[in-house]
C-alpha cells in the first residue's frame, strides 16, 4: 500500500505518539498546541541545526541541513536536522557529485538521552524515508543531545523498523477516524505542553465515571 501526499503525517509526530497517544491526537488531529520551556528550548536547538549559513564540508563528508524527506510506503514527511554524506566505494550517487556516498542521519535534541525510545523511533523513521528516496540501506545514525553535547549512535534494527511501521499504521487509522484516544493520567503529564488543555478534560471524564459508578453502587444497596 502507498499513501498519497495528502495523507502524509508528520515524522516528528511519532515522538508525541510514543510519549502519549492522546497528546499526538490533540496536536495533529485537533490542532492544539501550547509552548513550555521544553518546547521553546527544543525549537532553538532545531533552528541552529537548520541554519542554512552553517553548511559544512569536511574532507570527504558533505553535510546537508533541513533536508526534506518523505515515504509513500509509510505515508510520512518531514525534515532531517542534518544528513551527513560520507564518501565511500559502494554508496549512492548524488546529483552534481562524481563520488559515491553513504548516508548518515543526525537528529538534534535539547536534553539528554531518554529512558524511552521516542527519539530513536523518530530517527529510524527518517532513515527509512532516506532509504526509500535513495534506494539504499542505512544501518545507523546518531542523535545529538544539547545537554550532554554528545552524539548517541543508533543502529536501525529490524525491531525498530517494525515498530515504526506499526505505529504509523495506527496513527493513520486514528487520523482517518478523527479519533482522540483517552489515556490514564501519569507523572509524565506534568511536563506535557498540553496539560492545561488535556487534564481538565480527562478529570471531567474520570469524575463522570466515578459519579455513575457511585449511582450503580447505591442502586445495588
Describe the structure.
There is one protein chain. The protein is of the alpha+beta class and 221 residues long. The protein has a single domain, classed as Alpha-Beta Complex (Lambda Exonuclease, Chain A), CATH 3.90.320. Helix content is 41%, strand content 24%. The chain has helices at residues 13-19, 21-28, 37-49, 118-134, 158-177, 195-220; strands at residues 9-10, 56-58, 61-71, 76-88, 92-93, 100-109, 140-145, 150-155. Strands 1, 2, 3, 4, 5, 6, 7 and 8 form an eight-stranded mixed beta sheet that branches. Strand 7 (140-145) and strand 8 form a beta hairpin. Helix 1 (13-19) packs antiparallel against helix 2 (21-28), helix 1 (13-19) runs antiparallel to helix 4 and helix 4 crosses helix 5. The longest helix has 26 residues, at 195-220. Belongs to the CRISPR-associated exonuclease Cas4 family. One of its GO terms (biological process) is defense response to virus.
Keywords:
8 strands; 6 helices; 221 residues; alpha+beta; Lambda Exonuclease, Chain A; hydrolase; CRISPR-associated exonuclease Cas4; nuclease; metal-binding; EC 3.1.12.1
Radius of gyration, whole Å? 21 Å
What is the level 1 CATH name?
Answer: Alpha Beta
Strand content: 15-25%
The residue ranges in which pLDDT falls below 50 over 5 or more consecutive positions are 204-221
- Tally of structural domains: 1
Overall pLDDT, averaged?
Answer: 83
User: Which sheet architecture does the biggest sheet show?
Assistant: 8 strands, mixed
Q: Order of SSEs, N→C?
A: EHHHEEEEEHEEHH
CATH-defined architecture? Alpha-Beta Complex
Q: In CATH terms, what is the fold-level topology?
A: Lambda Exonuclease, Chain A
Overall 3D form: globular
Please report the distance between the alpha carbons of the first and last residues: 56 Å
Number of strand segments: 8
Structure classification: alpha+beta
Task: Supply the number of helical segments.
Answer: 6
- DSSP helix fraction: 40-55%
